[in-house]
Amino acid sequence: MRRREVIATLGSAAAWPLVARAQQAGRVSRICYLSPAARFNHLDEAFENALHQLGWVKGRDINIEYRYTDGRQDKIAPLVTEVIGLGPDLFVAWGPPLALGIKQAAPQSPVVFLITAFDPIELGLVSNLSRPGGNVTGITFASEQIIAKRLELLKEVVPSLARVAVLFSTERNRSSETLNALKTAAKAFRIELDEVEVEVPQSLEAAMREAKHRGAQAVYVWQGGFSFAFGKEISDVANALGLPSIHWFREAVLAGGLLAYATDLIQEAERGAAYVDKILRGTPPGSLPVEQMSKYELVINLKTAKVLGLTIAPSIMARAHEVIE
């Protein structure tokens, strides 16, 4: 089934007259869209296109206020304060820090969160996945097994792998559950982990160089706004230091990273638009189940493999959904 058809099925045909009446009345809904990226990008475009396919026209039925944190933790609090003052009808937030910030500051505001790779119950976003309650719902995906899978893929590509630098940012982008999953996987693969935390992209090179000095042979890039916004910078530093890298985002591999085992962020943006559509048509957010994405794709950058002097085994290539040559 095509994406356009999937989105259409989420919209209720019976609700179309409600939109028509809203249009006639001149009611314009205001959406505040928060992203850890640096600027308008392909995910934002996919979100807009999906809403348009569901019958919403910018300037006529909806206005979208975009705000970006540039992957910086220190921008979240002032941004949240700013957007709450705008009084939108609904918030869309990519990632736990932004979604939690809005929920805590404006608990009565509807929130649709996207790409929460961690348990939204443990994070305090919702109390239940099937019936979230409150004013928050959104998209999540199983992460514990996938965390182990990424480390396994890195080990397959670098069979001698014994020590991995795990690159975190200072965001609230990890939970004890997900971190323990990585540690358990590392123990099973006899890999030692070196946790490296950075706050700004300018500190990447020094931090990763020091990790290599301590014996790191590869980089496991943790999910977060920082790693999405600065995927290219992270990949460039890793490649320059001769460190194979695995990422949570396909976009990072397109920018030069070696591997990604990731969900389709464009599809998540489109599914998020379907949730927005339902809420604006009158469905309470708390009655919409949190959707759990389950499809993951392996992306390999052969150009980067060549730069690093690596040969990707045919058995790994056969599992790839996308190969960049």
Question: What are the SSEs and their pairings?
Answer:
Layout: H1 3-10, H2 16-25, E1 29-35, H3 42-53, E2 62-68, H4 76-84, E3 90-94, H5 96-105, E4 111-116, H6 120-123, E5 136-141, H7 144-157, E6 163-169, H8 176-188, E7 192-198, H9 204-213, E8 218-221, H10 225-229, H11 231-240, E9 245-247, H12 250-254, E10 259-262, H13 265-280, E11 291-293, E12 297-301, H14 302-308, H15 314-317, E13 322-324
Kindly describe this structure:
The protein has two domains: 3-141 and 264-293, Rossmann fold (3-Layer(aba) Sandwich); 144-262 and 297-324, Rossmann fold (3-Layer(aba) Sandwich). It has a seven-stranded mixed beta sheet, sandwiched between helices. A six-stranded parallel beta sheet has the order 2-1-3-4-5-11, with helices on both faces. Helix 1 runs parallel beside helix 13 (265-280) and helix 4 crosses helix 5 (96-105). It is α/β, with parallel strands linked by helices and 325 residues long. Helices cover 42% and strands 21% of the residues. The two termini are 28 Å apart.
Report the CATH architecture of the largest domain: 3-Layer(aba) Sandwich
Average the pLDDT over all residues and give the rounded result.
Answer: 88
Helix tally equals: 15
Question: What would you report as the Rg, rounded to the nearest angstrom?
Answer: 20 Å
Largest sheet properties: 7 strands, mixed
Structural class: alpha/beta
The span between the termini is 28 Å
CATH superfamily of the largest domain: Response regulator
CATH class label of the largest domain: Alpha Beta
Sequence stretches where pLDDT stays below 50 over 5 or more residues? 1-24
Shape: elongated
> Which range best describes the helical content: under 10%, 10-25%, 25-40%, 40-55%, 55-70% or over 70%?
40-55%
What is the helix/strand order? HHEHEHEHEHEHEHEHEHHEHEHEEHHE
Strand content: 15-25%
In the residues, how many domains can be counted? 2
Instruction: Count every beta strand, where a strand is a DSSP E run of 2 or more residues.
Output: 13
